[in-house]
Amino acid sequence: MALIAEAHNAETGASSRAAAGGRKSITILGSTGSIGCSTLDLIARDRDGFDLVALTAHRNVRRLIEQARQHRPQLAVIADRSLYTELKEGLQGTGIEVAAGEEAVIDAAGRSAAWVMAGIVGAAGLAPTLTAVRRGACVALANKECLVSAGPLFLEEVAKSGATLLPVDSEHNAIFQVLDANQLGSVEKIVLTASGGPFRTWSEAEMAAATPEQAVAHPRWDMGAKISVDSATLMNKGLELIEAHYLFPVGEPRLDVIIHPESIVHSMVAYEDGSVLAQLGSPDMRTPISYALAWPSRMATPCARLDLAQIGQLTFEAPDFKRFPALALAREALCAGAAASTVLNAANEVAVAAFLAGRIGFLDIASAVASVLALGTGAVAVPADLETVYEIDRIARIQTEEWVQNRAR
Ligand SMILES: NC(=O)C1=CN([C@@H]2O[C@H](COP(=O)(O)OP(=O)(O)OC[C@H]3O[C@@H](n4cnc5c(N)ncnc54)[C@H](OP(=O)(O)O)[C@@H]3O)[C@@H](O)[C@H]2O)C=CC1
Ligand SMILES: CC(=O)[C@@H](O)[C@H](O)COP(=O)(O)O
Ligand SMILES: [Mn+2]
Questions:
Q1: Which is a GO BP term held by this UniProt record (predicted)?
Q2: Alpha carbon of 170 to ligand 3 centroid (Å)
Q3: Less packed terminus of the chain by CB within 10 Å, N or C?
Q4: Predicted ipTM > 0.95
């Protein structure tokens, strides 16, 4: 895990913070989302431990105003410029600075918070997260799309700046907790667990008629709409395979997925001596977020404690690649090279949005991604620079939108 800084920046560490009696300065990118709210919930429980530098949102200006009034950041930013006046008026008299626009979100990430939660959904999170990385911050990475879309270039920036990257995605956080960076050569398999989503037992015909409401009703986790649909198609696990490939360099053949409907075992590492190490816990993102907040220490959370006697049974099954083709598509993209992953991510974002808007059916999501991947926009195996990533992403979005329009005809 070369990317996870060996030397720990004194300003960012909870243990050194405690020793110094200091406060950790924090920015939350995507504070109004599921990850953002869970992060705020944790820091509100330790008011003396944290200073909020910035909160950012996209369009949910009411929630942002509420959060800013309650948690008192130095700065509140709304990405949608048309909401600037509402934000300004909502925070009048508080002394909290306000700003609007995509550039303002990037500027917020550039402010000197020691720890930044990358909680924006989708490739929209790439530029702000990179800004935090480039100034060497401790970045808690929830936004998996950053790595899927621009993995090699993202890691290059981490290496250049000396930033600390802490995986927050529950599976990757689990692996981070049980994988000894000095024993990478002894790893036989990294096994990502997947709940199977709301349609785990549905037939293809049933899934063809699935509604957005059914798709976002995740059986175990309370998450934003996009990732919930990804869980339902199993694209989420595909994106996570690619994320794991960049975070834990054991080689693609050593990355595996198993369905585990209870979402108690968050992932496993199997070693050459036959040992399998896993991290378990109730399905609550406050555990992995707290791990990143307190790292390299730990902090108390209010998460429900695991009662295995009450749960009784944990079950596992192999994934069904026929009913859930997105998982195989993601592995193909991973093997094809980084540009194909950029295409996969962009096509998936457009297709999921089209499904949520009622423009295409549930099974069309994977079909759209497969068709756009087959066009070969990612023919350049590894993009040389970020401009190329953005260009591949842009073209793949146009191609997917065309696919959606043809499908809707
Ligand atoms: N939720 C979870 O449990 C988990 C999430 N993740 C990952 O974390 C990320 C966030 O997920 P989640 O919290 O569920 O998502 P949500 O949809 O709940 O929240 C997304 C956040 O990003 C903001 N946002 C959306 N689009 C933009 C944009 N174009 N520019 C700036 N900000 C934007 C939203 O603002 P607004 O509210 O104003 O729209 C919101 O604050 C995703 O990458 C997801 O895959 C990973 C593991 C678990
Ligand atoms: C909480 C989290 O990390 C999600 O990514 C979760 O894993 C989604 O559930 P699935 O296992 O159904 O994809
Ligand atoms: Mn996950």
A1: isopentenyl diphosphate biosynthetic process, methylerythritol 4-phosphate pathway involved in terpenoid biosynthetic process
A2: 5
A3: C
A4: yes
